[in-house]
Design a protein that fits this description.
Layout: H1 3-7, E1 35-43, H2 48-51, E2 56-61, H3 74-77, E3 83-85, H4 87-99, E4 105-108, H5 114-125, E5 133-137, H6 143-147, E6 155-158, H7 165-172, H8 177-192, E7 198-199, E8 205-214, H9 220-234, E9 239-243, H10 252-255, H11 265-278, E10 283-285
Parallel strand pairs: 2-4, 4-5, 5-6, 6-8, 8-9, 9-10
Antiparallel strand pairs: 1-2, 1-3, 7-8
Helix pairs in contact: 4-5, 9-11
Organism: Coprococcus eutactus
Pfam family, one: Radical_SAM
Protein name: Radical SAM protein
Length: 304
């Protein structure tokens, strides 16, 4: 794959900013074509079939094209934190995480580095690398870019954040989010979902699709619409992860007062009960005090 050709008029994300990232300019993702990583370490806080007991080998990429106002990872999503690395260094990180016992390589917020990631995976597989690759993304992707990953990604772990274009415009300046989430998830399911889903003997997913939804305060109806769409469209071809860990970041209440609190247990219970009532069986829920900043990892260049 010709990395420079793809990145010199960048259309990797739905914003299609067209910036020449190979010339040192930054796109909608806040990044040039140089890979920047803020953390590469075993991560224990994913779904049980991703983290297991050993942990997921999470590689946190700096930058993000979506830019949600409530982002818990703002330290890296704006592209300021992290360390610039080469593609060969990224490949070596995969092996280092494998040596630490990781169940998989978990590529977190990777969309703006698709060409470089493909090159790193090719390099790793030429050295007989065996772990599955997990694509942990926002849902704000184009189906065309996800098609480039066919044969490279084993497990897709996208978000489905908003069903309402008004909400996605308000909180992420992306009124087209729902249409792109639907199209990109459809392509992910084609590649890895349904009958292709499989787990190893320890219950670790080796191939499949898990769609996450982070419930926001005061938006239960939108959450129900997402769960309804996913179940009616895919039934048991995917797993649905319903998350209650929304954590209001400092100052969010000044811009969006409704987002200035965590969700209540009754809000979350109602959404989970709704999912069960409509027939969802392949799913994950969260229990306990997940809405704490302590669940946000330190983006201190560990393992980079």
């Amino acid at each position: 794959m010709d990395i420079r050709h793809i990145l010199n008029n960048c259309i990797l994300c739905p914003r299609k900013c067209g910036v020449d990232r190979t010339s040192g300019h930054t796109g909608a993702c806040h990044m040039t074509d140089t890979v920047r990583v803020s953390r590469a370490a075993l991560h224990m806080w994913e779904e049980p079939c991703i983290s297991g007991e050993n942990g997921s080998g999470a590689v946190f990429f700096s930058g993000c094209a979506l830019g949600c106002c409530f982002c818990q990872n703002k330290a890296i999503s704006g592209g300021k934190a992290g360390k610039d690395i080469s593609i060969s260094r990224l490949c070596n990180i995969f092996f280092e995480l494998q040596d630490k016992g990781a169940n998989n390589i978990n590529l977190v917020t990777p969309d703006h580095y698709i060409p470089q990631i493909i090159s790193a995976i090719d390099m790793a597989r030429s050295r007989n690398f065996k772990l599955p690759f997990v694509y942990n993304c926002s849902g704000y992707e184009t189906a065309e870019m996800i098609q480039l990953l066919d044969g490279y990604i084993d497990v897709y772990l996208p978000d489905f954040k908003f069903m309402s274009p008004d909400l996605s415009a308000k909180y992420s300046n992306a009124p087209d989010y729902p249409e792109h989430a639907k199209a990109s998830i459809s392509e992910m399911v084609r590649q890895c979902g349904g009958d292709q889903t499989r787990f190893d003997d320890d219950g670790i997913m080796q191939r499949g699709v898990i769609v996450r939804h982070l419930q926001l305060p005061d938006h239960l109806d939108d959450s129900k619409s997402i769960i309804t769409y996913l179940y009616n469209t895919y039934k048991d071809s995917i797993y649905i992860s319903i998350m209650n860990q929304y954590t209001p970041m400092p100052g969010i209440e000044n811009r969006f007062p409704e987002l200035g609190r965590t969700i209540t247990s009754s809000e979350y219970d109602e959404l989970v009960d709704y999912a069960i009532d409509i027939g969802v069986e392949n799913g994950f829920i969260q229990e306990g005090e997940t809405a704490k900043e302590s669940f946000i990892p330190a983006f201190d260049n560990e393992g980079v």
